[in-house]
């Protein structure tokens, strides 16, 4: 039996925290593709959401850029370590190859430099250009060369799902190196259907997670790469709590039997953050994926995250070993900090 004192000594680790990098935005400024991407973003989110989001992000710039401000906020939350990833607004999947390479290199180097100011408390993830699969391995290696733990990706790239065979070298390299892949959607392809009441985020993000993870499961990517270390943001969206429907389709329909096992079994091959905003949903996530596959996440410092990730975790009333596993034990093992 594990000594309770050993459990309490585990560091509290938040795997979902973000960073803004001015150098990335300077690199893309003035490109026609940026204006087109912003027009699409405006259509998808709607004017009311944009009117709120601009000031919200502006008020949080110090937490997103200043290491001292970040550390003070972490102390206030009771968080010992953050896994920091660039803001998904830095993906710029519209960029052509050379600009995309520059964006990712700047993001990787900027994230590494930010984390190097507090190396005992901050670890980082870089970016790769999903829109150019031929560059993905090169830039994954670049991220790892900077000392980062892996990379952050969205749920899809224009014209490509994560099941696309063009990504096979990426999955193979990530598996070979042990790199973490953090799946964090940005935008939703349901477009103007979600342009009111911030549905683009509240409904769109969980939908994108579910679609992306389903592509990875049903296509056999996780069969071919069982050692892939993939963390799904936002608790994996709708998929873990509705995985029974996927299992039924796998049993009932031959066109849904592309993967070797029932879909629910793959949840225990993935990792999920705890950011689901409901203690009952969090409990169900632990039941579906296993307590060893859930990691503390806050979406620091955005308004759709939580300022009290430990409070949200305590509200789920988990058994003590599970609480400490999610609080930091699982992440410590994954990040090789233990």
Automatic annotation (TrEMBL):
Sequence ranges assigned to domain Amidohydrolase-related in this UniProt record: 13-337
Domain of life: Bacteria
InterPro entries assigned to the protein according to its UniProt record, in alphabetical order: ACMSD, Amidohydro-rel, Metal_Hydrolase
Pfam families given in the database record: Amidohydro_2 (PF04909)
Key words of the record: Lyase
Protein name: Amidohydrolase family protein
Organism: Streptomyces longisporus
